[in-house]
Write a structure and sequence with these properties.
141 residues, mainly alpha, transmembrane, 1 helix, transmembrane helix, membrane
């Protein structure tokens, strides 16, 4: 009998807990529903603001696009002038480089001639020096 009484008490506590849980879930569900409705209302306002912002952005982008197009046209015109100046500068630079290359080539050739002359003089010193000594001593004639 005590066991039945304890089981009844536990069952009652369980039933009260279940009812309390359901009540709490109902309360949470109501709060959730209010939150969802508020969120939808907020999203509606946000959506309206987003739509207005998007329309304003499109209008702004239209103005920006016009400015960008004008800037692009001005840039292309400026690049045309800059390209002309760049071509002129490149032509002058190529002309100067050719002059410098000519001087460098001349210097290289001159240096090679000097090196050849130095080699000839060194060889002639080995060949002609004994002959010059022989001529000076009178052994050749």
């Amino acid at each position: 009998m005590v066991v039945c009484w304890l089981l009844g008490l536990l069952g009652l506590l369980w039933l009260l807990g279940l009812l309390g849980l359901l009540w709490l879930l109902g309360l949470l569900g109501l709060l959730w529903l209010l939150g969802v409705l508020g969120l939808l209302r907020c999203l509606g306002l946000l959506g309206l603001l987003w739509l207005l912002g998007l329309l304003g952005l499109l209008r702004c982008l239209g103005l920006l696009g016009l400015l960008w197009l004008l800037g692009l046209l001005g840039l292309l015109r400026c690049l045309g002038l800059l390209g002309l100046l760049r071509c002129l500068r490149r032509g002058i630079r190529i002309h100067l480089l050719e002059r410098v290359r000519g001087v460098v080539d001349w210097h290289r050739k001159f240096r090679l001639h000097l090196q050849g002359l130095a080699i000839v003089l060194a060889l002639s010193q080995w060949v002609l020096w004994p002959y010059a000594i022989a001529v000076a001593s009178g052994d050749v004639f």
